[in-house]
Protein backbone atom coordinates (compact mmCIF):
# COMPACT_ATOMS: atom_id res chain seq x y z
CA UNK A 1 0.00 0.00 0.00
CA UNK A 2 1.18 3.48 -0.88
CA UNK A 3 -0.30 6.89 -0.29
CA UNK A 4 -1.26 9.26 -3.08
CA UNK A 5 -1.31 12.82 -1.76
CA UNK A 6 -2.75 15.88 -3.48
CA UNK A 7 -1.80 19.02 -1.56
CA UNK A 8 -3.27 22.52 -2.10
CA UNK A 9 -3.59 21.90 -5.83
CA UNK A 10 -4.97 24.60 -8.13
CA UNK A 11 -5.42 24.30 -11.88
CA UNK A 12 -7.18 26.13 -14.69
CA UNK A 13 -6.92 25.85 -18.46
CA UNK A 14 -5.28 28.63 -20.46
CA UNK A 15 -7.83 31.06 -21.82
CA UNK A 16 -10.48 30.10 -19.27
CA UNK A 17 -11.56 32.56 -16.59
CA UNK A 18 -12.62 29.74 -14.26
CA UNK A 19 -10.41 27.40 -12.25
CA UNK A 20 -11.12 23.68 -12.43
CA UNK A 21 -9.59 23.10 -8.98
CA UNK A 22 -8.69 25.55 -6.23
CA UNK A 23 -6.70 24.47 -3.21
CA UNK A 24 -7.65 20.81 -3.66
CA UNK A 25 -6.26 18.45 -1.03
CA UNK A 26 -6.81 14.67 -0.97
CA UNK A 27 -5.18 11.56 0.44
CA UNK A 28 -5.86 8.33 -1.47
CA UNK A 29 -4.89 4.76 -0.71
CA UNK A 30 -3.29 3.15 -3.77
CA UNK A 31 -4.89 -0.20 -2.87
CA UNK A 32 -8.39 1.17 -3.38
CA UNK A 33 -10.36 0.30 -6.47
CA UNK A 34 -11.45 3.92 -6.73
CA UNK A 35 -14.35 5.12 -8.87
CA UNK A 36 -14.21 8.83 -9.79
CA UNK A 37 -17.67 10.31 -10.47
CA UNK A 38 -19.22 13.74 -11.00
CA UNK A 39 -21.00 15.99 -13.46
CA UNK A 40 -19.55 16.67 -16.91
CA UNK A 41 -17.06 19.52 -16.63
CA UNK A 42 -16.43 18.94 -12.90
CA UNK A 43 -12.78 17.97 -13.58
CA UNK A 44 -12.65 14.16 -13.55
CA UNK A 45 -10.48 13.73 -16.63
CA UNK A 46 -8.45 16.76 -15.60
CA UNK A 47 -7.70 15.19 -12.22
CA UNK A 48 -6.62 11.95 -13.90
CA UNK A 49 -4.29 13.90 -16.20
CA UNK A 50 -2.86 15.84 -13.26
CA UNK A 51 -2.15 12.58 -11.47
CA UNK A 52 -0.49 11.09 -14.57
CA UNK A 53 1.69 14.15 -15.09
CA UNK A 54 0.18 15.06 -18.46
CA UNK A 55 -0.94 18.34 -16.87
CA UNK A 56 1.01 20.50 -14.42
CA UNK A 57 -0.80 22.29 -11.58
CA UNK A 58 -0.40 26.06 -11.26
CA UNK A 59 -0.08 25.60 -7.52
CA UNK A 60 0.27 22.69 -5.14
CA UNK A 61 1.66 19.24 -5.76
CA UNK A 62 0.88 15.59 -6.39
CA UNK A 63 3.08 13.00 -4.71
CA UNK A 64 2.95 9.21 -4.86
CA UNK A 65 6.26 7.76 -3.61
CA UNK A 66 7.01 4.35 -5.07
CA UNK A 67 4.25 4.53 -7.66
CA UNK A 68 4.33 5.09 -11.40
CA UNK A 69 1.11 6.60 -12.68
CA UNK A 70 -0.03 4.96 -15.92
CA UNK A 71 -2.77 6.60 -17.98
CA UNK A 72 -5.18 4.54 -20.05
CA UNK A 73 -5.03 4.23 -22.98
CA UNK A 74 -1.22 4.25 -23.10
CA UNK A 75 0.75 6.16 -25.72
CA UNK A 76 1.99 3.79 -28.42
CA UNK A 77 5.06 4.33 -30.52
CA UNK A 78 3.96 1.99 -33.32
CA UNK A 79 0.27 1.23 -33.85
CA UNK A 80 0.90 -1.15 -36.79
CA UNK A 81 2.81 -3.60 -34.61
CA UNK A 82 1.43 -7.05 -33.85
CA UNK A 83 -0.63 -6.75 -30.67
CA UNK A 84 1.51 -9.23 -28.71
CA UNK A 85 4.68 -7.30 -29.59
CA UNK A 86 3.04 -4.01 -28.58
CA UNK A 87 2.07 -5.47 -25.20
CA UNK A 88 5.61 -6.83 -24.70
CA UNK A 89 6.96 -3.30 -25.27
CA UNK A 90 4.48 -1.82 -22.79
CA UNK A 91 5.26 -4.43 -20.11
CA UNK A 92 8.84 -5.60 -20.81
CA UNK A 93 9.11 -7.55 -17.53
CA UNK A 94 5.99 -9.62 -18.24
CA UNK A 95 6.17 -13.18 -19.55
CA UNK A 96 4.13 -14.24 -22.57
CA UNK A 97 2.15 -16.72 -20.50
CA UNK A 98 1.10 -13.87 -18.23
CA UNK A 99 -0.14 -11.85 -21.20
CA UNK A 100 -2.16 -14.82 -22.48
CA UNK A 101 -3.54 -15.46 -19.00
CA UNK A 102 -4.77 -11.85 -18.70
CA UNK A 103 -6.26 -12.03 -22.19
CA UNK A 104 -8.23 -15.10 -21.13
CA UNK A 105 -9.49 -13.33 -18.00
CA UNK A 106 -10.68 -10.46 -20.20
CA UNK A 107 -12.43 -12.81 -22.64
CA UNK A 108 -10.13 -11.52 -25.39
CA UNK A 109 -9.77 -14.00 -28.23
CA UNK A 110 -6.21 -15.32 -28.35
CA UNK A 111 -6.12 -14.75 -32.09
CA UNK A 112 -6.38 -11.01 -31.52
CA UNK A 113 -2.89 -11.04 -29.97
CA UNK A 114 -1.41 -12.17 -33.31
CA UNK A 115 -3.14 -9.48 -35.37
CA UNK A 116 -1.86 -5.93 -35.88
CA UNK A 117 -3.10 -3.67 -33.09
CA UNK A 118 -4.51 -1.26 -35.66
CA UNK A 119 -6.89 -3.96 -36.98
CA UNK A 120 -8.52 -4.70 -33.62
CA UNK A 121 -12.06 -3.54 -32.95
CA UNK A 122 -12.58 -0.81 -30.38
CA UNK A 123 -13.57 -3.36 -27.74
CA UNK A 124 -10.65 -5.69 -28.51
CA UNK A 125 -8.22 -2.80 -28.36
CA UNK A 126 -9.50 -1.69 -24.92
CA UNK A 127 -9.10 -5.18 -23.51
CA UNK A 128 -5.62 -5.63 -25.00
CA UNK A 129 -4.31 -2.32 -23.69
CA UNK A 130 -5.59 -3.02 -20.18
CA UNK A 131 -3.27 -6.04 -19.90
CA UNK A 132 0.14 -4.33 -19.50
CA UNK A 133 -1.20 -1.95 -16.83
CA UNK A 134 -1.65 -4.84 -14.42
CA UNK A 135 1.58 -6.67 -15.27
CA UNK A 136 3.97 -3.98 -14.08
CA UNK A 137 5.30 -3.60 -10.55
CA UNK A 138 4.56 -0.27 -8.88
CA UNK A 139 2.09 0.74 -11.62
CA UNK A 140 -1.05 2.64 -10.65
CA UNK A 141 -3.57 2.58 -13.56
CA UNK A 142 -5.64 5.69 -14.31
CA UNK A 143 -8.59 4.49 -16.38
CA UNK A 144 -10.55 7.31 -18.04
CA UNK A 145 -13.82 5.99 -19.51
CA UNK A 146 -12.43 2.59 -20.57
CA UNK A 147 -15.93 1.32 -21.42
CA UNK A 148 -16.57 3.89 -24.17
CA UNK A 149 -16.04 1.31 -26.96
CA UNK A 150 -17.35 -1.76 -25.14
CA UNK A 151 -20.65 -3.54 -25.63
CA UNK A 152 -22.61 -4.67 -22.59
CA UNK A 153 -21.13 -8.17 -22.47
CA UNK A 154 -17.58 -6.81 -22.77
CA UNK A 155 -18.28 -4.30 -20.00
CA UNK A 156 -19.32 -7.14 -17.74
CA UNK A 157 -16.14 -9.12 -18.46
CA UNK A 158 -13.92 -6.05 -17.92
CA UNK A 159 -15.72 -5.23 -14.66
CA UNK A 160 -15.14 -8.80 -13.45
CA UNK A 161 -11.48 -8.49 -14.44
CA UNK A 162 -10.98 -5.19 -12.60
CA UNK A 163 -12.82 -6.46 -9.50
CA UNK A 164 -10.05 -9.04 -9.07
CA UNK A 165 -7.30 -6.41 -9.29
CA UNK A 166 -5.85 -4.22 -6.58
CA UNK A 167 -5.45 -0.48 -6.85
CA UNK A 168 -6.63 1.78 -9.68
CA UNK A 169 -8.57 4.95 -10.38
CA UNK A 170 -11.55 4.61 -12.72
CA UNK A 171 -13.49 7.47 -14.34
CA UNK A 172 -16.89 6.16 -15.39
CA UNK A 173 -20.58 7.09 -15.56
CA UNK A 174 -21.82 3.53 -15.98
CA UNK A 175 -23.65 2.62 -12.77
CA UNK A 176 -23.54 -1.15 -13.25
CA UNK A 177 -19.88 -1.07 -14.25
CA UNK A 178 -18.91 0.92 -11.17
CA UNK A 179 -20.90 -1.40 -8.92
CA UNK A 180 -19.14 -4.35 -10.50
CA UNK A 181 -15.55 -3.35 -9.78
CA UNK A 182 -14.94 -0.48 -7.31
CA UNK A 183 -14.75 -0.47 -3.51
CA UNK A 184 -14.44 3.31 -2.98
CA UNK A 185 -16.02 6.36 -4.61
CA UNK A 186 -14.41 9.78 -5.05
CA UNK A 187 -17.21 12.20 -5.96
CA UNK A 188 -16.40 15.67 -7.27
CA UNK A 189 -19.38 17.52 -5.81
CA UNK A 190 -20.24 21.19 -6.23
CA UNK A 191 -18.79 22.05 -2.84
CA UNK A 192 -15.70 19.87 -3.19
CA UNK A 193 -14.55 16.25 -3.16
CA UNK A 194 -16.15 13.48 -1.12
CA UNK A 195 -14.71 10.01 -0.46
CA UNK A 196 -17.04 7.13 0.37
CA UNK A 197 -16.19 3.49 1.12
CA UNK A 198 -18.30 1.11 -0.97
CA UNK A 199 -19.55 0.87 -4.54
CA UNK A 200 -21.51 3.40 -6.56
CA UNK A 201 -24.93 2.31 -5.27
CA UNK A 202 -23.73 2.75 -1.68
CA UNK A 203 -22.53 6.29 -2.35
CA UNK A 204 -25.57 7.24 -4.42
CA UNK A 205 -27.99 5.87 -1.83
CA UNK A 206 -26.27 7.90 0.90
CA UNK A 207 -26.28 11.00 -1.31
CA UNK A 208 -30.00 10.64 -2.06
CA UNK A 209 -30.79 10.25 1.65
CA UNK A 210 -28.68 13.31 2.45
CA UNK A 211 -30.32 15.31 -0.34
CA UNK A 212 -33.81 14.36 0.86
CA UNK A 213 -32.95 15.38 4.42
CA UNK A 214 -31.56 18.72 3.25
CA UNK A 215 -34.57 19.32 1.02
CA UNK A 216 -36.95 18.62 3.92
CA UNK A 217 -35.00 20.92 6.22
CA UNK A 218 -34.94 23.54 3.48
CA UNK A 219 -38.73 23.41 3.17
CA UNK A 220 -39.14 23.66 6.94
CA UNK A 221 -36.85 26.67 7.14
CA UNK A 222 -38.64 28.38 4.23
CA UNK A 223 -41.91 28.04 6.13
CA UNK A 224 -40.26 29.27 9.33
CA UNK A 225 -38.75 32.27 7.53
CA UNK A 226 -42.14 33.19 6.07
CA UNK A 227 -43.90 32.82 9.43
CA UNK A 228 -41.27 34.87 11.27
CA UNK A 229 -41.38 37.55 8.56
CA UNK A 230 -45.13 37.93 8.99
CA UNK A 231 -44.78 38.02 12.80
CA UNK A 232 -42.06 40.68 12.59
CA UNK A 233 -44.22 42.86 10.35
CA UNK A 234 -47.26 42.52 12.64
CA UNK A 235 -45.22 43.35 15.75
CA UNK A 236 -43.65 46.38 14.07
CA UNK A 237 -47.11 47.59 12.99
CA UNK A 238 -48.44 47.19 16.54
CA UNK A 239 -45.47 49.12 17.91
CA UNK A 240 -46.07 51.98 15.49
CA UNK A 241 -49.76 52.12 16.40
CA UNK A 242 -49.04 52.14 20.14
CA UNK A 243 -46.40 54.82 19.71
CA UNK A 244 -48.89 56.95 17.82
CA UNK A 245 -51.29 56.96 20.81
CA UNK A 246 -48.70 58.93 22.82
CA UNK A 247 -49.79 61.99 20.91
CA UNK A 248 -53.43 61.09 21.08
CA UNK A 249 -56.32 63.23 22.47
CA UNK A 250 -57.95 62.95 25.87
CA UNK A 251 -60.19 59.95 26.33
CA UNK A 252 -63.12 60.70 28.67
CA UNK A 253 -61.08 63.53 30.09
CA UNK A 254 -58.07 61.36 30.90
CA UNK A 255 -54.66 62.21 29.40
CA UNK A 256 -52.70 59.24 27.83
CA UNK A 257 -49.86 57.90 30.01
CA UNK A 258 -46.95 58.59 27.63
CA UNK A 259 -44.41 56.79 29.82
CA UNK A 260 -46.42 53.59 29.90
CA UNK A 261 -47.19 53.74 26.20
CA UNK A 262 -43.53 54.41 25.36
CA UNK A 263 -42.46 51.45 27.50
CA UNK A 264 -45.00 49.19 25.80
CA UNK A 265 -43.88 50.39 22.35
CA UNK A 266 -40.23 49.74 23.18
CA UNK A 267 -41.05 46.20 24.33
CA UNK A 268 -42.86 45.55 21.07
CA UNK A 269 -39.92 46.92 19.05
CA UNK A 270 -37.57 44.66 21.01
CA UNK A 271 -39.80 41.70 20.25
CA UNK A 272 -39.75 42.64 16.55
CA UNK A 273 -35.95 42.77 16.61
CA UNK A 274 -35.82 39.35 18.33
CA UNK A 275 -38.09 37.85 15.69
CA UNK A 276 -35.97 39.39 12.90
CA UNK A 277 -32.81 37.94 14.50
CA UNK A 278 -34.41 34.47 14.52
CA UNK A 279 -35.44 35.00 10.90
CA UNK A 280 -31.89 35.98 9.90
CA UNK A 281 -30.52 32.90 11.69
CA UNK A 282 -33.00 30.69 9.80
CA UNK A 283 -31.96 32.29 6.50
CA UNK A 284 -28.29 31.69 7.33
CA UNK A 285 -29.02 28.07 8.20
CA UNK A 286 -30.89 27.65 4.94
CA UNK A 287 -28.00 29.07 2.94
CA UNK A 288 -25.80 26.25 4.20
CA UNK A 289 -28.21 23.64 2.81
CA UNK A 290 -28.44 22.14 -0.67
CA UNK A 291 -24.75 22.80 -1.24
CA UNK A 292 -24.28 19.45 -2.95
CA UNK A 293 -27.76 18.81 -4.31
CA UNK A 294 -27.34 18.36 -8.06
CA UNK A 295 -30.08 20.25 -9.88
CA UNK A 296 -31.73 18.02 -12.44
CA UNK A 297 -34.76 19.91 -13.72
CA UNK A 298 -37.21 17.63 -15.54
CA UNK A 299 -36.81 17.52 -19.30
CA UNK A 300 -39.78 17.77 -21.64
CA UNK A 301 -40.57 16.01 -24.88
CA UNK A 302 -43.40 16.32 -27.38
CA UNK A 303 -43.62 13.07 -29.35
CA UNK A 304 -45.95 13.17 -32.35
CA UNK A 305 -48.72 10.61 -32.73
CA UNK A 306 -48.49 8.65 -35.98
CA UNK A 307 -51.66 7.72 -37.82
CA UNK A 308 -50.75 4.03 -37.93
CA UNK A 309 -49.67 1.59 -35.22
CA UNK A 310 -46.74 0.45 -37.41
CA UNK A 311 -43.99 3.00 -38.00
CA UNK A 312 -41.20 0.95 -39.49
CA UNK A 313 -40.65 -2.53 -40.94
CA UNK A 314 -37.36 -4.30 -41.69
CA UNK A 315 -37.33 -7.48 -43.77
CA UNK A 316 -34.16 -9.59 -43.98
CA UNK A 317 -31.86 -6.56 -43.79
CA UNK A 318 -28.10 -7.16 -43.85
CA UNK A 319 -25.36 -4.55 -43.72
CA UNK A 320 -22.58 -4.96 -46.30
CA UNK A 321 -19.15 -3.84 -45.08
CA UNK A 322 -16.40 -3.53 -47.74
CA UNK A 323 -14.23 -6.63 -47.72
CA UNK A 324 -16.46 -8.48 -45.24
CA UNK A 325 -19.39 -10.83 -45.39
CA UNK A 326 -22.81 -9.21 -44.94
CA UNK A 327 -24.12 -9.22 -41.40
CA UNK A 328 -26.78 -11.84 -40.57
CA UNK A 329 -30.21 -10.72 -41.83
CA UNK A 330 -32.50 -9.03 -39.33
CA UNK A 331 -36.26 -8.50 -39.44
CA UNK A 332 -38.48 -6.56 -37.02
CA UNK A 333 -41.44 -4.20 -36.81
CA UNK A 334 -41.33 -0.99 -34.77
CA UNK A 335 -44.75 -0.25 -33.29
CA UNK A 336 -45.95 3.07 -31.93
CA UNK A 337 -44.99 3.48 -28.25
CA UNK A 338 -42.34 0.75 -28.33
CA UNK A 339 -38.88 1.39 -26.89
CA UNK A 340 -36.78 -1.08 -28.83
CA UNK A 341 -33.14 -1.70 -27.94
CA UNK A 342 -30.81 -3.01 -30.63
CA UNK A 343 -28.41 -5.47 -28.97
CA UNK A 344 -25.29 -7.17 -30.25
CA UNK A 345 -21.55 -7.32 -30.08
CA UNK A 346 -19.31 -4.52 -31.32
CA UNK A 347 -19.23 -4.66 -35.12
CA UNK A 348 -22.59 -6.42 -35.47
CA UNK A 349 -24.01 -3.48 -37.45
CA UNK A 350 -26.17 -1.69 -34.88
CA UNK A 351 -24.97 1.84 -35.69
CA UNK A 352 -25.03 1.18 -39.44
CA UNK A 353 -28.60 -0.05 -39.16
CA UNK A 354 -29.68 3.12 -37.35
CA UNK A 355 -27.95 5.28 -39.95
CA UNK A 356 -29.70 3.33 -42.71
CA UNK A 357 -33.11 3.83 -41.10
CA UNK A 358 -32.27 7.51 -40.60
CA UNK A 359 -31.84 7.92 -44.35
CA UNK A 360 -28.09 7.62 -44.85
CA UNK A 361 -26.66 5.74 -47.83
CA UNK A 362 -25.49 2.53 -46.15
CA UNK A 363 -24.75 -0.52 -48.38
CA UNK A 364 -27.25 -3.20 -47.48
CA UNK A 365 -29.47 -6.03 -48.60
CA UNK A 366 -33.13 -6.51 -47.77
CA UNK A 367 -36.00 -4.07 -47.42
CA UNK A 368 -36.53 -1.09 -45.10
CA UNK A 369 -40.06 0.36 -45.16
CA UNK A 370 -40.82 3.58 -43.32
CA UNK A 371 -44.36 4.86 -42.86
CA UNK A 372 -45.37 7.68 -45.18
CA UNK A 373 -44.66 11.09 -43.67
CA UNK A 374 -42.82 9.54 -40.71
CA UNK A 375 -40.73 12.14 -38.84
CA UNK A 376 -37.57 10.83 -37.15
CA UNK A 377 -35.17 12.50 -34.73
CA UNK A 378 -31.63 11.11 -34.71
CA UNK A 379 -28.70 11.17 -32.26
CA UNK A 380 -25.53 9.83 -33.92
CA UNK A 381 -22.88 7.88 -32.07
CA UNK A 382 -20.01 10.08 -33.23
CA UNK A 383 -19.61 13.69 -32.19
CA UNK A 384 -17.03 14.86 -34.74
CA UNK A 385 -19.79 16.50 -36.80
CA UNK A 386 -19.92 19.40 -34.33
CA UNK A 387 -18.10 22.66 -34.90
CA UNK A 388 -18.80 26.34 -34.37
CA UNK A 389 -20.97 27.81 -31.62
CA UNK A 390 -24.07 25.92 -30.45
CA UNK A 391 -26.49 28.73 -31.31
CA UNK A 392 -25.23 28.84 -34.91
CA UNK A 393 -25.57 25.05 -35.00
CA UNK A 394 -29.21 25.29 -33.91
CA UNK A 395 -29.95 28.00 -36.49
CA UNK A 396 -28.42 25.93 -39.28
CA UNK A 397 -30.61 22.98 -38.30
CA UNK A 398 -33.72 25.15 -38.17
CA UNK A 399 -34.68 24.07 -34.64
CA UNK A 400 -36.15 26.29 -31.93
CA UNK A 401 -33.16 28.11 -30.44
CA UNK A 402 -34.79 28.90 -27.09
CA UNK A 403 -35.94 25.32 -26.64
CA UNK A 404 -32.49 24.03 -27.60
CA UNK A 405 -30.64 26.27 -25.13
CA UNK A 406 -33.17 25.55 -22.36
CA UNK A 407 -32.60 21.81 -22.71
CA UNK A 408 -28.84 22.31 -22.57
CA UNK A 409 -29.15 24.38 -19.39
CA UNK A 410 -31.30 21.65 -17.82
CA UNK A 411 -28.53 19.18 -18.70
CA UNK A 412 -26.18 21.26 -16.51
CA UNK A 413 -24.60 23.04 -19.47
CA UNK A 414 -22.65 26.08 -18.28
CA UNK A 415 -23.67 29.38 -19.90
CA UNK A 416 -20.03 30.17 -20.65
CA UNK A 417 -19.96 27.22 -23.08
CA UNK A 418 -22.51 28.91 -25.36
CA UNK A 419 -19.87 31.35 -26.58
CA UNK A 420 -17.22 28.72 -27.30
CA UNK A 421 -16.45 26.62 -30.38
CA UNK A 422 -17.89 23.11 -29.93
CA UNK A 423 -14.69 21.53 -31.25
CA UNK A 424 -13.14 22.38 -27.86
CA UNK A 425 -15.95 20.71 -25.89
CA UNK A 426 -15.48 17.50 -23.95
CA UNK A 427 -17.06 14.35 -25.39
CA UNK A 428 -19.80 14.52 -22.76
CA UNK A 429 -20.60 18.15 -23.61
CA UNK A 430 -20.75 17.31 -27.32
CA UNK A 431 -23.12 14.42 -26.67
CA UNK A 432 -25.41 16.75 -24.73
CA UNK A 433 -25.53 19.08 -27.74
CA UNK A 434 -26.61 16.17 -29.96
CA UNK A 435 -29.24 15.10 -27.44
CA UNK A 436 -30.55 18.66 -27.12
CA UNK A 437 -31.02 18.99 -30.87
CA UNK A 438 -32.92 15.70 -30.93
CA UNK A 439 -35.15 16.65 -27.98
CA UNK A 440 -35.84 20.01 -29.66
CA UNK A 441 -37.61 18.23 -32.51
CA UNK A 442 -41.19 16.97 -32.39
CA UNK A 443 -40.99 13.53 -33.97
CA UNK A 444 -42.93 10.29 -34.38
CA UNK A 445 -39.90 8.22 -33.39
CA UNK A 446 -36.44 8.85 -31.96
CA UNK A 447 -33.32 7.05 -33.19
CA UNK A 448 -30.58 7.26 -30.58
CA UNK A 449 -27.15 5.70 -31.09
CA UNK A 450 -25.40 5.35 -27.71
CA UNK A 451 -26.98 8.54 -26.35
CA UNK A 452 -25.33 8.14 -22.93
CA UNK A 453 -21.74 7.97 -24.17
CA UNK A 454 -19.57 10.16 -21.87
CA UNK A 455 -22.75 11.64 -20.30
CA UNK A 456 -22.61 12.09 -16.50
CA UNK A 457 -24.74 9.85 -14.33
CA UNK A 458 -27.12 12.63 -13.22
CA UNK A 459 -27.96 13.47 -16.83
CA UNK A 460 -28.41 9.75 -17.53
CA UNK A 461 -31.02 9.57 -14.81
CA UNK A 462 -32.69 12.72 -16.22
CA UNK A 463 -32.95 11.12 -19.67
CA UNK A 464 -34.21 7.88 -18.17
CA UNK A 465 -36.97 9.72 -16.29
CA UNK A 466 -37.83 11.73 -19.44
CA UNK A 467 -38.42 8.58 -21.48
CA UNK A 468 -40.48 6.90 -18.77
CA UNK A 469 -42.62 10.03 -18.33
CA UNK A 470 -43.37 10.89 -21.98
CA UNK A 471 -43.12 7.35 -23.44
CA UNK A 472 -41.86 8.23 -26.94
CA UNK A 473 -41.35 5.63 -29.64
CA UNK A 474 -37.65 4.89 -29.38
CA UNK A 475 -35.22 2.76 -31.35
CA UNK A 476 -31.85 2.89 -29.70
CA UNK A 477 -28.42 1.40 -29.06
CA UNK A 478 -27.04 1.66 -25.55
CA UNK A 479 -24.66 -0.39 -23.40
CA UNK A 480 -25.56 1.07 -20.00
CA UNK A 481 -27.21 -1.90 -18.30
CA UNK A 482 -29.17 0.15 -15.74
CA UNK A 483 -30.62 2.35 -18.49
CA UNK A 484 -31.53 -0.66 -20.62
CA UNK A 485 -33.38 -2.37 -17.79
CA UNK A 486 -35.34 0.78 -16.97
CA UNK A 487 -36.22 1.94 -20.49
CA UNK A 488 -36.38 -0.90 -23.04
CA UNK A 489 -39.76 -2.56 -23.66
CA UNK A 490 -38.28 -5.03 -26.14
CA UNK A 491 -34.90 -6.08 -27.52
CA UNK A 492 -33.73 -7.15 -30.95
CA UNK A 493 -30.43 -9.02 -31.23
CA UNK A 494 -28.18 -8.58 -34.25
Quaternary: single chain
Shape: globular
> What is the CATH domain class of the largest domain?
Alpha Beta
* Assigned CATH architecture of the largest domain: 3-Layer(aba) Sandwich
What fold name stands as the CATH topology of the largest domain? Rossmann fold
What keyword list fits this structure?
494 residues; alpha/beta; Rossmann fold; 3 domains; five-stranded parallel sheet; 20% strand; globular
Structure description:
With 494 residues, the protein is α/β, with parallel strands linked by helices. It has 14 helices and 17 strands. Strands 5-6-7-3-8-9 form a six-stranded mixed sheet, with helices on both faces. Strands 14-15-16-12-17 form a five-stranded parallel sheet, sandwiched between helices. The longest helix has 45 residues, at 200-244. It starts with a strand and ends with a strand. The model has no long low-confidence stretch (mean pLDDT 88).
Give a brief rundown of this model:
The protein is α/β, with parallel strands linked by helices. It has helices at residues 44-52, 83-90, 96-105, 122-130, 152-163, 175-181, 200-244, 258-287, 350-357, 390-397, 401-410, 427-439, 457-470, 481-487, and strands spanning 3-11, 21-29, 33-37, 59-63, 68-72, 139-144, 168-171, 184-189, 192-197, 310-319, 330-335, 339-343, 364-370, 376-379, 445-449, 474-477, 490-493. α11 crosses α12 (427-439).
Please specify the SSE layout and strand pairing.
Elements: E1 3-11, E2 21-29, E3 33-37, H1 44-52, E4 59-63, E5 68-72, H2 83-90, H3 96-105, H4 122-130, E6 139-144, H5 152-163, E7 168-171, H6 175-181, E8 184-189, E9 192-197, H7 200-244, H8 258-287, E10 310-319, E11 330-335, E12 339-343, H9 350-357, E13 364-370, E14 376-379, H10 390-397, H11 401-410, H12 427-439, E15 445-449, H13 457-470, E16 474-477, H14 481-487, E17 490-493
Parallel strand pairs: 3-7, 3-8, 5-6, 6-7, 12-16, 12-17, 14-15, 15-16
Antiparallel strand pairs: 1-2, 1-4, 8-9, 10-11, 10-13
Helix pairs in contact: 5-6, 7-8, 11-12
Amino acid sequence: MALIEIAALSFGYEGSCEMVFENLSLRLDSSWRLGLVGRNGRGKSTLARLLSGHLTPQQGRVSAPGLRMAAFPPTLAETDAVTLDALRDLAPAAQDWQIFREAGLLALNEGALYRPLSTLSGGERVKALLIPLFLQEGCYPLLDEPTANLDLESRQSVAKYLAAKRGFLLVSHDRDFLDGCVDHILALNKSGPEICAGDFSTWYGEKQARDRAEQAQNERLLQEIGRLGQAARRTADWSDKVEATKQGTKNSGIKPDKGYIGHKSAKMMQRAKSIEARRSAAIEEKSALLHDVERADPLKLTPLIYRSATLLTLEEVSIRYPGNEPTPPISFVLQSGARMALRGRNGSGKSSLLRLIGGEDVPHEGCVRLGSGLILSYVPQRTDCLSGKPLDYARNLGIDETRFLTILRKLDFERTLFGRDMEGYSQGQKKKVLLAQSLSRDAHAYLWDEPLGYIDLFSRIQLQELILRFAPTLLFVEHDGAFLRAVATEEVWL
